[in-house]
Please model this.
Amino acid sequence: MTDLLGASGDRIALSFGGRSAGFDELARAVAGAGLPPGDGPVGCRADGDPVLAITTVLACLDRGRPVLVGGTQRDADRIADDLPAGTELALTTSGSTSADGSPRVVARTLDSWLASAEPLAGLAGLDAHDRVAVTGPLAATMHLYAALHALRIGATVTDDVASATAVHATPTRLARLLSTEAALPRTAIVAGAAMPSRLRGQAAGRGIRVVEYYGAAELSFVLATRHGSDRAPDSGLEPFPGVEVDLRPADAGLELWARSPYLAMDVVGGRMRRDADGFATVGDLAERTPAGGIRVLGRGDSAIITAGATVLAEDVEAHLVALPGVHDAAVVGEPHDLLGERIAAVVELEPGARLEAVADAARVALSPVELPRRWFAADLPRTASGKPARGRLRDDIAAGRLGPGHPPHFADWSRA
Model:
């Protein structure tokens, strides 16, 4: 357990739902945890009791059993023969399934995660005296990492944001925290999607130091802010300590490749592209900023091909969330006989905002090719990591579950 827990004694390790456990108590619970017989992988759904989930994960790691986080024991048994030798953590990827409907699983070693513990603590200014809040289910890799990282540096993991000194959150979750008048932690570690400039400004106005990073379940950390809220707006991110980055031409733009000690071993039921030099990619597109940083544009497979032009969903979404009255937005492509695909936008509106006014404002903010042709007002479905579930939105729009949209006579709008 010495590699997993960075403290001992009665100091609080876990504090969830009003229950607390010290580091020694947690170590005893891990030692006494019951695991299924054998030496194969153990399923840990991790969407219920977080104390039980953390105990199970630590027990598996301590005893050399691979643990499938976010899956059932049946799932673990099914993939047992497919896991690479030496797998310690098997992580289900949110919003992504293989051809048979089972989740894609990222296989990695514990060292490939914990190697980044000291660099992240340095960037975020975290140490054993911190209380670190997680704001989502531990089945999501960013939240599981947040918990294991905090325990590794001897800090307390909690679900109580009000008592925390640091919080891990998606941009959407941080925006909701900032919308309240409650006291917030001094540091926010943000990932899961691109962070709008407006949100950075709001955090700075509340005295919160933001450490933004880009990563993926397969790659772990790739890019991060070096100077928190002191950096210039929209200056982009820089390679995370220990990471080499390469931007390579692809059909939709420049593809982001990374080489580091943090890469996963393989992806079961999926595809992790590597080259002979040890670089890997998940297909995200990026660009250099005028300040020399890197801006991540989004997954190449989220590109919408409309009227012969390539439009990145994340690019349009960034413009939409900057419009008055928009709390959050997601953009998808719909099949269209003439255009190939037409752009549809689903927006979460601020109280009192009107969808028609947002659509009108978008005509000014966006170029004609980027302009959504159909609009829907709805709460966005999300993956476990907090990202908009675009696949579900496409299905909901196609099935009419979001209503007719705006404008009601789409043919007239499309000719405008």
